[in-house]
Amino acid sequence: MPTHVETAARTDHEWMDRALELAARGEALASPNPMVGAVVVRDAEELARAFHTYAGVRHAEVLALEKAGPAARDATLYTNLEPCSHRGRTGPCVEAILQAGVARLVAAIPDPNPQVNGQGFDRLRAAGVEVLTGVREEEARRLNEAFACWVRTGRPLVTLKAGMTLDAKIAPPPSPEAPAGQAAAHRWITSEESRAQVQRLRHQHDAVLTGIGTVLADDPLLTDRCGRPRRRPLLRVVLDAGLRLPLDSQLVRTAQDDLLVFCGEDIWMGKRAKLEERGIEVIELKESAGRISLVAVLQKLAQRQITSVTLEAGTRLCTYALATDCVDKVWLFYASYFLGEEAVPFLTSPKSELVPSEVEGARSTSPGLSLLHYRLHRFGPDFALEGYLRDVYRDY
Q1: Is residue 61 annotated as a catalytic residue, yes or no?
Q2: What is this structure's pTM?
Q3: Which of 6, 14, 21, 61 does the annotation list as catalytic?
Q4: Rounded CA gap, 36 and 76, in Å?
Q5: What is the pLDDT of residues 165-189, one digit of tens each?
Q6: What is the greatest pairwise CA distance in the chain?
Q7: Buried b (16+ CB within 10 A) or exposed e, 92-122
Q8: What is the pLDDT of residue 296?
């Protein structure tokens, strides 16, 4: 027979699962705020529930307590994130909890925001509220890893996505008829099931980033086509030092204030004007040896409240991103066949993609770069490897 403590712990985990499920409903709707769900419970019965969306302004805890009304007194409040104790667009959630007379708070993790980080818990404990933390901690950290990265480091979380064969090739060999460096006629490497997962990944992110080489080779759309609602469109970002983006590309033809191009300073202003006439924003950045700094690009995106970026690019940009320590997480999709040594590789020598000033201190992908907290997934005939290049549970 389970003890009373074991029964209580199991019940807390079950209610926290419900709060996490609610929080996840804020995906693509809460950013740049964290996803938060809240459940008010008394005598093992749910009184109210809520989740946060940025457009809704009020936080999940406040919404749930308002729904519960006077019944919230002496109840337990479950939430996946520490209630805020500072004033932002709304008043502190801690004050709403105290005014409602909640007797017990169960939370998964502290708020990674340095303005909060433990202060909410301290304020509640000082007022006599019982506070229990660490329930479903791993799941809660995964859910809001992008927010944690953005608020603590000042840059978005970057997920590198790539589809490849078993011999790590991302495209067939270049065609003799194609321009130098351009791959053969585009064909999918991975299955329809894998591509559906890519759409889900895009939906989880604020932006998708690629290089001009991929645009010229594949003419991608880079849109979120999963069919679920978003608060703001997926921002499509292109690194294009020479501003070679074709005016008849799918990206340009479908641009609706959702396309951002980073280019170098020595460009043809007429081309910039033509892009801007089509509602495309162009930002000039200093370049070195024909390359734009990815670090600078990520800083610019963070200033626009972009908390997460999925990197979907070719060999050069993927290698550069890994070598300059700009990648936090990877999703690598593998199709069960080989393309041969002449095909386009996923990665190349890191130093070949760096400008001289970046070579020293750059990290190599072979050896020494390993994945943390990795998982294997199956999508139709393919498999995928999801993993981290940083310890998000410690660093974020």
Answers
A1: yes
A2: 0.92
A3: 61
A4: 16
A5: 999 999 998 766 655 444 444 578 9
A6: 77
A7: bbbbbbeebebebbbbbbbbbbeebeebbbe
A8: 97
